[in-house]
Structure formats: structure tokens, C-alpha cells
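Q: Please design a sequence for this.
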């Protein structure tokens, strides 16, 4: 026995003999994209609800001698036509819009105000009912324009109740997660920083707006008391190395947990000693920065001060070539253990595949 209904209180209405096989609707996230000197800014304005598609079958009703599926399809079509006529009763009165029909599905606690847009044979789109010899089960596809969600027994999303608000929030959250994870973006010579000149221009513009953008944090307190180092990790040699690692993690948007700090100290030991041989460059980055000079034939840079070096090393880690390392650091779990072999090999040009 079906429970889904469609129609008007005091007007034409239909109870589905068999509940729909599927009820689907989608959201499009509406955004505004602005190109700025520091990069692309994506603003989520809202979401647009698309039509609801209800698909199902009529089956055979053996409780009546006239229960053939094709007869049920014709009767359903006649009732949908009455609902469509009823919803368009005020079409000639531009000052008034007739109230929409109500589609309910108690099994999911769904209640939507809708307008009927289309009824098609699910097997033959574009035709309402197609009668074919030997076809024992007629199927339908009903398209509804959702005006408003009136569900009341659903999880609160924002300031209102209902599946529309909840689904819209889910769609927006999923979109934000995709762009945050960089899906659809790959670092190459065609995407990202093209050269050091562009980077220097961006940094100069940022410093003009915020002269302290690259300052090291004051004090040399403990590295943090977060996740443990797990499979290993070194202790920073002194306060200056600890401060450098903390500043680098801050530039990466990563917490200074024990696991992050100790594993970064281990990574530094795979590249150099402390203080580093190349000035203020313990990771041996080749990224050119304002005031940097070339240290060796591989292009490793000497940086003029610790804050420039921390920024350069962080930007190199975050350049898109080391996504698993970056993700682990931002999660605070450190980079000891497996899962990073390819990225460490890429960083070291095959010199090592782990740091702990």
C-alpha cells in the first residue's frame, strides 16, 4: 500500500498505489569568483534547487478485474491533468498565483509545495503513456517544480527546518570541501606561481597591507601538546629551530603539535644541520624570495632572515607537489610513517623516502 500523495486540499488529489521507486532533486551551488592580487577568491552566495523527479511503476492490481497496469497509467494521467488544470486556474489573473499542490512522502517525513511540470512514460520520455503489446508494467516519471519545503520532522539546518535547507547546506559544504582540497587544480607551469617575479610581487603587496605578515611568533614556548610523534621524530636542537619550525607550520596553516614539530625536525636532519648550511633554509628550498641569493648549482637559496626562510620553505611544501605531506601536517599528525615515500623521494631527488 502506497503512502505518497500529490494534490490539493479540497481539490484534485491522488494517492500513489505503489510508493515511488526514486525521488531525486539536486542543488547547484551559486558562486562569485573574483581575481585578486593574492589569488582567486570564491564566494558562495547560495544554492539553487532543481526540479524533483519522481519515478515509479503502476504494477498490476489483482484486487479488481480492471486492474491492468495500462488502465492504472491512464487513470493516473487523467488525475495529473486535473491537478495541472487546478494549479493553472488563475493563469489569466496576473495579480494572483494559485497555491501549489502538496507532495508528501510520510516514509521520509517529506512534504513539499510543488507545481506539476511534466508526466512522462519512464521508458519513453516525451510521451505520457505508451501502450505496447506484452508490456505488463507501465512506468512513469513525474517532474515537479519545488516551491517550498514544508517538512517539519527533519534536522534543523541554519534557522529553519527541512530537507531543502539541510540538503542545501550539505551541497555547499561538499563544494567548499572540494575547493579546499584543491580538487580540479594541479600545480604545473600553467597553474600556480609562474616564476619568482610573480611571487615577489605578491609578497610585496601583502607586506604593504600587513608589514608583520611574515613575522615569527614571539616567545619560544613549547612546541605543543597535541598528537604524539607516533613512530619517531627528533627534538629541535634549540629554541631557534623550534621557532623556525613553528613559524613554518603557521605559514602552512598547520598546528604546532608534538608530532608535527618532531617530524619536521627529523626532516630537517635529512637535509642539513642546524643552523642550516644554506642560510635560513633548512629544507634546501630553491624558491627565490626578496633578498635571497643562490647557494649552489642546484639553485638552493640563501634567505636573508628566518621569517623569509620559514615562508619560503612553507610555500615550497604547499606548492601542490606534496599533497599528502601537507594534509598530514594540517591534520597535526606529523609525517612519520608510511604514505609519503613518493613525495619525499620527489623532494630529495631520490635521496630518501622517509624521514623518521
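A: Design:
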Amino acid at each position: 500500500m502506497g503512502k505518497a500523495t500529490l494534490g490539493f486540499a479540497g481539490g484534485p488529489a491522488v494517492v500513489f498505489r505503489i510508493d515511488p521507486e526514486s525521488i531525486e532533486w539536486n542543488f547547484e551551488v551559486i558562486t562569485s569568483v573574483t581575481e585578486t592580487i593574492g589569488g582567486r577568491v570564491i564566494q558562495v552566495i547560495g544554492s539553487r534547487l532543481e526540479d524533483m523527479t519522481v519515478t515509479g511503476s503502476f504494477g498490476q492490481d489483482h484486487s479488481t478485474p480492471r486492474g491492468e497496469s495500462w488502465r492504472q497509467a491512464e487513470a493516473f494521467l487523467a488525475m495529473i491533468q486535473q491537478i495541472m488544470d487546478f494549479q493553472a486556474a488563475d493563469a489569466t489573473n496576473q495579480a494572483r498565483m494559485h497555491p501549489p499542490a502538496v507532495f508528501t512522502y510520510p516514509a521520509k517525513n517529506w512534504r513539499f509545495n510543488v507545481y506539476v511540470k511534466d508526466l512522462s512514460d519512464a521508458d519513453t520520455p516525451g510521451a505520457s503513456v505508451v501502450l505496447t503489446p506484452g508490456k505488463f508494467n507501465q512506468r512513469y516519471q513525474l517532474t515537479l517544480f519545488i516551491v517550498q519545503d514544508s517538512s517539519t520532522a527533519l534536522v534543523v539546518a541554519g534557522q529553519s527546518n527541512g530537507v531543502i535547507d539541510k540538503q542545501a547546506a550539505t551541497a555547499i559544504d561538499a563544494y567548499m570541501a572540494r575547493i579546499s582540497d584543491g580538487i580540479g587544480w594541479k600545480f604545473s607551469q600553467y597553474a600556480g606561481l609562474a616564476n619568482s617575479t610573480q611571487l615577489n610581487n605578491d609578497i610585496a603587496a601583502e607586506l604593504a597591507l600587513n608589514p608583520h605578515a611574515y613575522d615569527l611568533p614571539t616567545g619560544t614556548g613549547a612546541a605543543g601538546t597535541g598528537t604524539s610523534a607516533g613512530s619517531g621524530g627528533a627534538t629541535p636542537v634549540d629554541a631557534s629551530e623550534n621557532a623556525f619550525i613553528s613559524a613554518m607550520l603557521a605559514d602552512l596553516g598547520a598546528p604546532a603539535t608534538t608530532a608535527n614539530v618532531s617530524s619536521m625536525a627529523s626532516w630537517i636532519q635529512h637535509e642539513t644541520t642546524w643552523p642550516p648550511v644554506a642560510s635560513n633554509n633548512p629544507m634546501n628550498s630553491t624558491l627565490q624570495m626578496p633578498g635571497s641569493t643562490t647557494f649552489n648549482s642546484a639553485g638552493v637559496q640563501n634567505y636573508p632572515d628566518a621569517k623569509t626562510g620559514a615562508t619560503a620553505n612553507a610555500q615550497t611544501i604547499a606548492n601542490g607537489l606534496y599533497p599528502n605531506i601537507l594534509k598530514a601536517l594540517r591534520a597535526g599528525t606529523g609525517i612519520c610513517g608510511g604514505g609519503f615515500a613518493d613525495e619525499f623521494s620527489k623532494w630529495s631527488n631520490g635521496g630518501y623516502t622517509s624521514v623518521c
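Q: Thanks. Anything notable?
A: The chain has two domains: 5-180, 196-348. The longest strand covers residues 110-121.
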